[in-house]
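Per-record layout

source: Arachis hypogaea
name: No apical meristem-associated C-terminal domain-containing protein
length: 155
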Amino acid sequence: MLWLEQKWRSQLPTQSGGSKRTNVSATGAYSSSSNSETPLADEPDVDSPVRPQRSKKSKQKDIKNVREKELMDREKEREEEKEHRAKIMPIKEKELQIQAAMKEKELQTQRYIKEMEIKAKEREMDMQILNADTSTMSEKRRALHEIACEKIIAK
């Protein structure tokens, strides 16, 4: 590349005496040190240390660790969900009990209303019997009417 050649390297900015970070290498890498005499690994004259390749076993171990961590995370999520359900179950049971009690109360109210309606109809029929005109009735009919009126009054 052109910027690595000597002609272009002389035009690259150099480090000033200030404490700010500046480009100090030919590749444009930053230096955190205030000593510009320290050679950098990015410069072509300096040998950079070679990092060893990772072994297959170490990669497999890392993969295994990642999988184990994922499994542990899933297990932790399951445990948290179980705890959440355990907390919610008593609340849901209480809610169901309340709903059942409300339904029973509603059924009792409906039964009471029907009973009152039936009693109201009975009173209406009793009033019709009590207020019936006996002048046009036959003797047998009048005798039955009097028995019915006595039963109504006895209630």
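summary: The longest helix spans residues 56-130. Helices lie at 6-9, 56-130, 139-154.
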